[in-house]
Design brief:
Blueprint: H1 2-20, E1 26-29, E2 32-35, E3 38-41, H2 42-46, E4 52-60, E5 65-73, E6 78-79, E7 87-91, H3 102-107, H4 110-119, E8 130-134, H5 136-139, H6 145-160, E9 170-172, H7 175-189, E10 202-206, E11 210-217, H8 219-222, E12 235-240, E13 243-253, H9 257-267, E14 281-286, E15 289-294, H10 302-313, E16 341-345, H11 346-353, E17 363-366, H12 368-379, H13 386-389, H14 401-415, E18 424-427, E19 429-432, E20 435-438, H15 441-450, E21 456-458
Helix pairs in contact: 7-15, 9-10, 9-14, 10-14, 11-14, 12-14
């Protein structure tokens, strides 16, 4: 009797679905219904979830672990989760703090995993991908410590979760992935993802250890991608929202904002440095190496500092291609895909500190020249007076603010060949419909992992 009632109830639900949907929009094949040309499991059609899907992304940073849960419709447009555009939770410390106890590292993610699953409907969890990307913290661990932590995390997700999962979805992100995901995120937020390549936005993301450039290029330029050599990754073939892209993406390791300071210090061979503010006498530590940080007796000199910045970037390094950015790296061929540039991470924070952007601004339109003009003012200010002249400057950055501004201007103009007066947009948050999205990689990762097309690489052995 119970079985008959259950069968009758199931038939009633199916009949209701058939009654409510236009006949032309629904068909049945095996265990799937096709609704408006999209295939969904029967459970999703019956429960009214045929038009939504979820993605879970863990950002395993050096100081904290974070989880982002995104909800999309069938067109990959974001749907709200509660009152926000995503679920976001974090926990401290980061995975790398558990170097000697991999299981404890994995267990630290349990609260985040539970909160993520709580917002994903039970019937949709098997279709919701779970991806973890580890960054700086795990990269710095020794021996097999990082591998053991990642394996423990894989086992946790497989045993404790019903989310869609593949072992390779738990990994340490490389610079190419971060650059790709940032490009996807920015273009998604600006609703240029899915348009032809010439309408998309190019991105330059200046992290602490590396800087990533990404932009869509023509098929002609993609076919010119150099043959692979060690540590070079150039063009990815990607598909987003039904559009194929040739995406030039390159990560310049050791040219991030913090790493570049060390490179500039190396040019003066541990002597005084004209990029340091007059009145400061200290040290700078990066990668375990301690550098002398003091201005010469003649004071700060912006002109000489620019010479040192170009030297650090190896602007005059031999270029074996038609055109290079710096240090002999192929530039991707240029074109409309980099006509509009969005700059993020350290470009934003330095602009805020130096007054290029207004206090608490989420971003704004500026020009590379603004970094040079700000450098003139900062480099002419003594260390003791910076806080009164530039109140947004962070204490840890003050001795190096002249150096940072000079480097970022040199990187844009002499490194990436951006004209000094070209308009660029500096962002920390991007407006998306009625919300603001953080200019970070997890959303781009979610969109990438949910896109149906696989990625292939031209001119590289790397595969993201």
């Amino acid at each position: 009797m119970v079985k008959q009632l259950a069968a009758g109830y199931g038939l009633l639900l199916v009949s209701l679905v058939l009654f409510l949907l236009p006949i032309s929009s629904l068909s049945y094949s095996g265990q799937f219904y096709t609704v408006h040309r999209h295939k969904y499991p029967i459970r999703r059609v019956l429960l009214g979830h045929e038009s939504e899907q979820y993605a879970v992304v863990f950002d395993a940073g050096s100081t904290a672990s974070r989880v982002h849960v995104f909800r999309f419709d069938q067109n990959l447009d974001l749907l709200p989760i509660g009152d926000d555009v995503e679920l976001y939770e974090s926990t401290k410390p980061g995975l790398s703090s558990y170097a000697v106890d991999p299981q404890a590292a994995a267990n630290s993610l349990k609260p985040l995993l539970e909160k993520a699953e709580d917002v994903v409907p039970v019937e949709l969890r098997p279709d919701a991908p779970a991806r973890l990307g580890a960054t700086a913290g795990l990269r710095m661990l020794e021996g097999d410590e990082a591998d053991r932590i990642l394996e423990a995390v894989r086992n946790l997700i497989k045993k404790e979760s019903t989310l869609k999962f593949k072992d390779e979805w738990v990994s340490i992100l490389d610079g190419t992935q971060e650059g790709t995901y940032m490009w996807v995120m920015i273009n998604y937020a600006l609703e240029t993802l899915g348009k032809r390549y010439s309408k998309t936005i190019g991105t330059i993301d200046l992290g602490g250890g590396s800087v990533q450039m990404a932009y869509a290029i023509s098929e002609e330029n993609a076919n010119k991608a150099p043959q692979v050599s060690a540590n070079e990754t150039y063009v990815l073939q990607k598909n987003f929202k039904g559009t194929n892209y040739n995406l030039y993406v390159h990560s310049y390791l050791d040219y991030g904002a913090k790493a570049a300071r060390a490179l500039i210090f190396k040019t003066t061979k541990n002597s005084t440095n004209p990029c340091i503010l007059e009145g400061y006498d200290g040290t700078y530590t990066y990668g375990g190496v301690v550098y002398k940080a003091a201005a010469p007796r003649t004071g700060t000199n912006m002109r000489i500092c620019m010479v040192l910045a170009r030297k650090a970037l190896k602007i005059k390094a031999p270029c074996k291609y038609e055109k290079c950015t710096f240090n002999g790296i192929w530039n991707g061929g240029g074109g409309d895909g980099q006509k509009n540039l969005y700059l993020s991470s350290s470009f934003y924070w330095t602009a805020l500190e130096a007054g290029i952007l207004e206090s608490n601004a989420d971003g704004g339109i500026t020009r590379p020249l603004a970094y040079k003009e700000a450098a003139k003012r900062v480099c002419a200010t003594k260390f003791a007076d910076i806080k009164s002249e530039f109140p947004n400057a962070e204490d840890d950055d003050i001795p190096y603010l002249c150096m940072d501004l000079v480097y970022q201007y040199t990187l844009l103009v002499h490194g990436f060949d951006v004209t000094p007066k070209q308009k660029v947009t500096v962002v920390n948050k991007v407006n998306y419909k009625n919300s603001k999205l953080n200019a970070e990689w997890p959303l781009g990762c979610a969109i990438d992992v949910m896109s149906s097309s696989t990625s292939t690489v031209k001119g590289s052995i790397a595969d993201i």
